[in-house]
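Entry 14: structure prediction run for DUF6089 domain-containing protein. Input pasted below.
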Amino acid sequence: MKYFFLLLLCAFIPRNVDAQIYEVGVFAGGSNFIGDVGATDYISPNQAAFGVLAKWNRSARHSFRASVIFSDLKGIDRDSDDPRRIERDYEFDTSIIEISAGMEFTFFDFDLHAIDTKGTPYLYSGITLTNHDNYYFTNSGEYVSEDTSSWALGIPIVLGYKTRIADQFVLAGEIGARYTFSDELDGSTPDSEDRESFAFGNTNNTDWYMFTGITLTYTFGRRPCYCNF
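Run finished. Output tokens:
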């Protein structure tokens, strides 16, 4: 896995750093799950999340961004406000690795070479691929591994605020929802067709999860000519 991180960072560090502004950094925060098992609170981190990210600032208003984030997703029916879930008393816990790529848009110009650059809200979206192990619940409520893993495709919807805290460092806080096209993350839908009889929950809704946290990035590169973009 450490070689994957090196390849990711190298892909965003150009041979000639004089042309644009680049950022590399870390993410730290928490995650929470929204689905058929556990609480349905939208922002309620209950597991740690951490990762790395890189950006290519194509203009003072938009950037290409990629990240890799590690976390656990955990759902406990007893934490829900739904009496039916409390009575059911299911619980799941699964580790995920999320790979995300897309574009970040700032509400105001964020030129890191400008003396008066302070801070701006921003939006980020693109695509995500989330790797998770597959589980299912038996009729007695036992959480059982299928000994397989899957990739869930999703769409990130992130709102944040970032500010320059030093000449080459940017600090940001963000809240991000991940809408996935999978209903398998919490074990409510088994991956194997042979276990379809163990499926439960709302089949019309797929799984969501949230990341809430901060990013700290290091910037480098000479002043770009944004007029070309």
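Notes: Residues 138 and 198 are 6 Å apart (CA to CA). Will compare against the previous run tomorrow.
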